[in-house]
Design a protein that fits this description.
The protein is of the alpha/beta class and 255 residues long. The protein has 2 domains: 184 residues, Alpha/Beta hydrolase fold, catalytic domain (Rossmann fold); 56 residues, no CATH class. The chain is built from 11 helices and 8 strands. The protein has an 8-stranded mixed sheet with strand order 1-2-4-3-5-6-7-8, with helices on both faces. Helix 3 links the parallel strand 5 and strand 6. The longest helix is centred in the N-terminal third of the chain and has 15 residues.
Length: 255
């Protein structure tokens, strides 16, 4: 593990594995760099994979007060420290990448959760309720709100997860659900932002994800001047590491 100091003094932890051009992985909500270890390993034959903890997660710091711009600065600090040329962002982490100005040669985005037609409605007072749970010292309540009302997992499944060792890790980063909610703005496809981006972007989605998630990736790419969308076999909201590695190796190595 290595650390870089972001603009506001926050330490951001990362691992760098493999060899080749640098590729930064940017996590979505409720995940830290441990979640992406298998992806880093699969990609390490072609890239120096930079797998970092977003602030407030894992081994990274979390200087208050939070502002969305701080995470853009964190990404730039990681990129500068490692010299990475490429990036791949997942889920709500896509908005960190897009709003950071995309200081990369090429990037990939995986299923940004924009609420397009057919998506379930956003939970009522979602951000406010998340913050209320956090302020009350109830990270479990925030975690359950996200998992049941935002993601759509059955409550009985979440109740089962509460009884496993992984629950403590989820509670430890539950406050960062607020951060992702702020990064996502109103969760609509940010057409104005996307239309201003000239960097080549590959939009990926799993053919096993709900149709609205697939459409969200497609609509995001359609708003980009230099975007391409591809669907691949996977599971809900994710692609297997070996599939992602093959796709990204081909995309980033193409002239």
């Amino acid at each position: 593990m290595e650390k870089v100091v972001s603009k506001d003094g926050t330490e951001i932890a990362y691992d760098a594995v493999g060899s080749g051009p640098g590729l930064v992985l940017i996590a979505g909500a409720f995940t830290d760099r441990s979640f992406f270890a298998s992806y880093a390993e699969a990609l390490s034959g072609s890239f120096t994979v930079v797998n970092y903890d977003r602030r407030g997660r894992g081994d990274s710091g979390d200087t208050t007060p939070y502002a969305v711009e701080r995470e853009w600065e964190d990404l730039d600090a990681v990129r500068t420290a490692t010299g990475a040329r490429y990036a791949c962002a997942f889920s709500s982490g896509v908005m960190v990448l897009l709003q950071a100005g995309l200081p990369f040669e090429k990037v990939a985005i995986m299923e940004p959760p924009f609420r397009v037609e057919g998506a379930p409605p956003a939970p009522e007072r979602y951000l406010e309720r998340l913050q209320e749970y956090v302020d009350a010292g109830n990270p479990g309540g925030a975690a359950e709100l996200f998992m049941v009302e935002a993601v759509g997992q059955p409550k009985e499944v979440v109740d089962q997860i509460r009884e496993t060792p992984m629950w403590a890790g989820l509670e430890a980063m539950a406050h960062t659900l607020v951060y992702d909610g702020l990064q996502m703005r109103d969760s609509a496809v940010p057409v104005s932002l996307l239309s201003s981006i000239s960097t080549p972007v590959l939009g990926l989605y799993s053919n096993a994800s709900p149709e609205w998630m697939q459409r969200a990736a497609q609509e995001a790419v359609a708003a980009l001047p230099n975007g391409t969308a591809e669907g691949h076999g996977g599971t809900f909201h994710t692609l297997p590491p070996e599939t992602l590695a093959a796709v990204l190796t081909g995309y980033f190595s193409a002239s």
